[in-house]
# Entry
Amino acid sequence: MNPEIVPIHRKESLGEDGILFVRTEGIIDTMVKIPLLVASMIIVAAIMPIQSSFSSPRTLDLIIYPDGSTHVSTEIDVDPFVTDYELDLFGSTIDNFVAVGENGFLLTTDVVGNFALIETFGSSVISIEYDIHDLVSKQGRVWTFSLDAPSDFTLLLPKNSAIVGMTNLPINMEIIDDKNQLTLSNGQAEINYLFSTNSIIPDPIDPVNPTSTSDYLSYALIAGVVSAAVIGIAAIIRFKQKIVKPIQDQQLTQTTQKIETIDTETIFKLNPDIREDDKEIVKFISDNGGQAFESELRKKFLQPRTTMWRAVKRLERNEIIEIEKKDLQNLVKLRKNMEKEE
Amino acid sequence: MKILALFTIFVLIFGTASTSLVNDAYAQNDPNILLRIAAQADEQISQQLERSYGDSIPSDIQTLHSQGQMAVVSLEKSLPDDIEQAREDFLTAMKLFQQISRIISESTTEAKITRSDISDRDLKSELNRLHKYFQNLKTVSEKQNTGIELSEIKELFILANEQINSGQTSDATQTIEEIKSLIISIKQHIQDSSSNSASDRVKKFILNQLQKIQTILDTANIDPNSSEFVEAESLINEIENLISEDKISDAKIKFGELNKIVKIIKKSIHKIT
# Structure
């Protein structure tokens, strides 16, 4: 902990003003307590996203119906210490408004014009769904969707619709149940489409999940961070010489406790509207003994975190799976009592 | 310990930096989709022009279309190496196609689709929207164990679907109206049956907040005889009484008033400090 001052012995290297060069090793130790520094950084890292995310949508998904009405589905982080949250709606002709708190409670809402006042009372995340009739207009055969989006969003176009104009660059595009789904950035967006029999945009590479070189870079970076974290954890465990055996035993038990395989065909029969990509997820979970971590699903299907999270939430809404928190991760399990409930 | 601490710092910094890199990478996901969208738009516009004008396409539209097609060709050439140029070409092409589609349609007046626009009412879409709404309510109902009977509405959904598929429009419309009124009563039922737990949550929340506000008032260096202070104290007492009497809606109103006064007090504290 003693700072070691090492003067430069060669006289000729001293500056004209007689500046002393000092070894910096140990200065941080002396001046700043490292644990304090680490704790501060962790707090800053934890607080920054919270501060920036209050009142901003976590997810925003839009579905356009053939008649031009649009279903909006969004999750918003709200301040748990305020009584209510005023939501700017995308228009004033609103139907079927539902706001649900994080515990699954229906929240009291008052929709007035372009605003909805939602009594959050302690909720930190609220889910909102509603239908709106203001986002799409029609001129002749051409339909125009326009929105000033507060965040990146997905837009599922109606079946047999073909895009004939747009003002923005799409982030991504997928084909879901013979419908084009675009992922677009926040800001003003306008898309023109019309109905045509030849509307599905063919993908010569992979119709569901186009993957570019940049994706591989992303995965490599993620893998790098994960590996570094794993090495770090291993080092900590080794360093502290803690007993590892019980954890290993627990993991073994966890693997052996996998629930019996559930017939996916029955699930699909009971849920005929389930999307093709969701079916793949269900099949994977079923083959995996009825449960899988969300992170495993992301790895398997090479999907970004938000896309997989939405898929999992969709399956949960359809009561096909249930989500459990395990070791700070989401464990996705096929529901056993699906048939009974139906 | 020092090595571990430094390692943690490294992971934190690298983790933060890599996340932003990953976001950028995701924003550039698969530039081939630009070509796919533009090529399809080109094809659709060509079909529209053929349908609207046959062989006698007006020269201004023809010029726009040719420019759009050139932009698509340029887009194809730019990929996969020159992404920036590809993006530019994509936007150029799509804006030109947009212009053409507007010109083709300009003879008709624009009509916004609203729920009152019955002529454009699409029963299938309406039924799908209602079904989504019902699914949301059903999930809430099950989470709260309300025990609401949902078999009737499920049957009505099946019936409406059959009626739409077999072209019985007026019957389907009637069934949809029945579904709507049932959904309203289901929502009301959920709200009623969950009102106890909801009011418990509100009570808990308000009492917690009152404690915090009381702490602010106790520690604030302000004149206890000031009108704001006196009013805040009186509102706190009033809210506590209302909660003990289970008058939650009144308590919520008073809590809103209290919050406004606390904001004023907080501002004056900031001015002093």
